[in-house]
Amino acid sequence: MTEDAELELRLLLEAIYQKYHYDFRGYSVASIRRRLQQALGAFGCSTLSGLQERVLHDPATFRALLRYLTVQVTDMFRDPGYFKTFRERVVPLLRTYPSIKLWIAGCATGEEPYSFAIILREEGLLERSVLYATDISGESLEKAAEGVYPLDRIAAFSELHRRSGSSHSLSEHYTAAYGAAVIDRSLRSRVVFSDHSLATDNVFAEVQVVSCRNVLIYFDKSLQDRATGLFRDSLCRKGFLGLGSKESLRFSANSSAFSDFAREERWYQKQ
Amino acid sequence: MTPVPRRVPSEVELVVAGASAGAIDALRVVFSGLVARHPPLAIVVHVPAHTPSLLPSLFSGVCAVEAEDKQPLEPGTIYFAPPDYHLLVESGGLLSLNADGPVNFSRPAIDVLFESAAIAFGPRVVGVLLTGANSDGAEGLAAIHAAGGFTVVQHPDTASAPAMPQAALRRFTPDRVLDLLGIRDLLAEFGTRGTP
Ligand SMILES: C[S@@+](CC[C@H](N)C(=O)[O-])C[C@H]1O[C@@H](n2cnc3c(N)ncnc32)[C@H](O)[C@@H]1O
User: Fold this and answer.
1) How far apart are CA A105 and CA B101, in angstroms?
2) B101/A73 Cβ within 8 A
3) Cis preceding-peptide flag for B174 (omega within 30 of 0)
4) Among A9, A114, A124, A147, which residue has the fewest nearby CB atoms (within 10 Å)?
């Protein structure tokens, strides 16, 4: 990369950090650069320095830029095999705990934590479970807490739910109203949504399960190590860590703290 | 006066390639000349999102793997983008994956890989665009060209699907337009040069 381009990018991320306390300095440069390139077009700026000036003087521009800096795509039961493994192999071990805590890090608009809540309900464990669902996107967290999804997405979710090994119908878990599905209150009340950054915040609870999917790929190696360090410190002994289908601990500084539990499905167990 | 063709670079740190319809047969030919310590090769082939990751297993006699996130680039290795993820290279010599939306209706997209390579490797990268029935890769290859990298396009007349090479040729003039054997011979030179 040319030195000037590198410098401009670093200065912009530093400015964002100093002014707004969002820390993107440890993100994968290749990915973030591409999205900033799109933002330049959208905001009519010709350089990152030009964008930096706008961002520093106009909080509304920063809020709009946040949508470019993070990627919010998600689904319920994304990669059904991952959730099937959770249901069939992790849940039986969770039954031995009187109270069950899960941390879903980078939960976006809530589809992933609700998928876990649904499985726990179907397995009769929801009443003694709490799910902490965290993200840095306030907009997404608000949507997540509402738990309202367009019905046209629900057909696909139902199929993924079935393939995750459920013998129930997804419709047992929501009520349909005005073209949207509203996740049942009993599920929503078990999920605590909060603002938490894997880049700047610390461990906040001891949990038996951490699920962090398609978040680490956006980080560079040292930020990945910070995040997996938080997961290690948050998990109880023999607790479970689940990652995205193309994420692994193979190149992680913390790989020795974990062993493979279900390799293909990216479930790890803390030593 | 015809311009003198640019010389094949002697210091290549990375080769990136993209292919779509007809990719497997084309790549078999292209790989057949590789020397043992060829520069790392990162490749995007368009495959449907929910196919299992079979690509690396289709090529014998080479070291081909599915790219993993933050995997270091090693000589002698071919890295394929996994289905449903974009593949990018970082300036520190690592691979990255991301799940951003499709580009040119594709994920993985050739443009995403090529543009990241242009930025991270500039004149030290060679970009190769092969057969395909869409126009992915043209922008990315032009970016490699603009960054001083060496660009190669399969001759459209020799491609089983000519649209992708044609789109690139409409966009700019690459350093070489070759048939598959020509591309094979060109790649065979890398890794034998510069290293004692
Ligand atoms: C692609 S989504 C993944 C959603 C879900 N986990 C899934 O796999 O479907 C990535 C999420 O990570 C969040 N994120 C990005 N940086 C973060 C950070 N430093 N700490 C916590 N979450 C972060 C984004 O806001 C976004 O919601």
Assistant:
1) 21
2) yes
3) no
4) A124
Is B25 annotated in the active site? Answer: no
Residues of B in contact with A217 (CB under 8 A): 69, 85, 96-99
Predicted confidence (pLDDT) at residue B19 exceeds the cutoff of 90 = yes
Of the candidates B46, B86, B111, B145, the residue annotated as catalytic is: B46
Nearest Cα to A94, choosing from A6, A209, A244? A209
Structure confidence by residue, pLDDT tens digits, B47-79: 877 777 788 989 988 999 999 999 999 999 999
Domain ranges of chain A: 3-69, 80-270
* Catalytic position from the list B38, B116, B136, B175: B136
Contact A30 B116 (CB under 8 A): yes
Domains recognised in chain B with CATH numbers:
14-189 (3.40.50.180)
Q: Active site includes B106?
A: no
First to last CA, chain B: 37
Integer Cα distance of B38 and A66 in angstroms: 41
Which residue positions in chain A have pLDDT lower than 70? Answer: 1-2
Task: Check: pTM over 0.95? Answer yes or no.
Answer: no
Contacts of A142 (CB under 8 A, 6+ apart): none
Find out whether the beta carbon of A23 lies less than 6 Å from any atom of ligand 1: no
According to CATH, the superfamily of the domain at A80-270 is Vaccinia Virus protein VP39 (3.40.50.150)
Which residue has 């493979």 as its token pair? A260
